[in-house]
Amino acid sequence: MTVSARNQAPEGEKIVVENVLVTGGAGYIGSHTCKELASNGLVPVSLDNLVYGHREFVQWGPFVQGDIADGRLLDALFAEHRFAAVIHFAAFAYVGESVQDPGKYYRNNVAGTISLLEAMRRGGCSDIIFSSTCATYGMPDADLIGEETRQEPINPYGRGKLMVETILRDYQAAYGIRHGILRYFNAAGADPDGAIGERHDPETHLVPLAIRAALGQAGPLTIFGSDYPTPDGTAIRDYIHVTDLADAHVRALTHLRRERASVVCNLGTGRGSSVQEVIETVAAIAGREVPVLRGARRPGDPPRLVSANGRAREVLGWVPQRSAIATIVADAWNWHSREG
Ligand SMILES: NC(=O)c1ccc[n+]([C@@H]2O[C@H](COP(=O)([O-])OP(=O)(O)OC[C@H]3O[C@@H](n4cnc5c(N)ncnc54)[C@H](O)[C@@H]3O)[C@@H](O)[C@H]2O)c1
Ligand SMILES: O=c1ccn([C@@H]2O[C@H](COP(=O)(O)OP(=O)(O)O[C@H]3O[C@H](CO)[C@@H](O)[C@H](O)[C@H]3O)[C@@H](O)[C@H]2O)c(=O)[nH]1
């Protein structure tokens, strides 16, 4: 893939602008990735049914409202845009809901992905980047989770993501469709320019909930468990800035196209922050207290999930730039406090 083709081609050289289909491009991570694709000279075409997305987040490239299950729509899009590759974010991502209504999750996240892959076959597109998750590892006891750590998901959301990983391997073997499987740890933060940010409805993620509690836009934050075997008793996660995730997607696309080889990477920092540390960081940046309640552990939450990230560094040349917890919180704070 010719990254940065538009602005940096020498005079007289033919400029090739490549289109990339971004499913879920109106969502949180998808919209930030569209910005990064555009700044690398690529044209993201966002396909989103707006069940959870936001039309105003699509600011880079065309928007198409529709569903990945709609094969006819996909055929028309592949014919019109001749996509060089697909980045596939579209999915439901509420772990608790996936336990209550697994059919909804397997239909959208697994069957929907098969619909997309079949359209890629028909449309002659052979590169896909897939949003996987650390939830595929379940409750690992490793200090640092590597790509070879056993994947034993403990809920339908994680199991569906793992099924898609398996399907992608089978599609590569049978049909030559190459994949980049990116297992994100905890996405957080917002566009440093403040153009877009994190908006899930309902919101379940720690950083936005702590900020909204500090702003008085939501009730006190409930700390889910203070009796974990961790230094301060609260659970530890590996928070990764959404713009670092976006950068990794462009790098993974470049890798697929240049090396003609699939890749599987964890995307995390290798460092963990506890719930208590995140709350203290929010309070310091906001200059006000975060009101909290102490509650029970959330079922299914492991004490600690921290990624090894050597492979992403070596294979993609990826080095997180904005993922210090203070930078994540500062960018998220700027976005939320402006949103009002
Ligand atoms: N946020 C995280 O911490 C995190 C961590 C690991 C993995 N992930 C994965 O990353 C991806 C993006 O997550 P996000 O936080 O940006 O979520 P999000 O809900 O903000 O974005 C997902 C988008 O997909 C759209 N969508 C869902 N089903 C669709 C369908 N059938 N057809 C078309 N559009 C559809 C939604 O409207 C939404 O805009 C998801 O696949 C999620 O499972 C997220
Ligand atoms: O009100 C809250 C919300 C969260 N937490 C804790 O904060 C940490 C982070 O929680 P959250 O922001 O909800 O993220 P996770 O549950 O760690 O994220 C998982 O859930 C995502 C689904 O949205 C998956 O995609 C991710 O891969 C997976 O790490 C956990 O220890 C939670 O128990 C609280 O204490 N109080």
TrEMBL record:
UniProt EC number: 5.1.3.2
EC class (word): isomerase
Domain of life: Bacteria
Record GO terms (molecular function): UDP-glucose 4-epimerase activity
Domain NAD-dependent epimerase/dehydratase: 20-268
Keywords: Carbohydrate metabolism, Isomerase, NAD
The family this protein is said to belong to: Belongs to the NAD(P)-dependent epimerase/dehydratase family.
Subunit text: Homodimer.
Protein name, UniProt field: UDP-glucose 4-epimerase
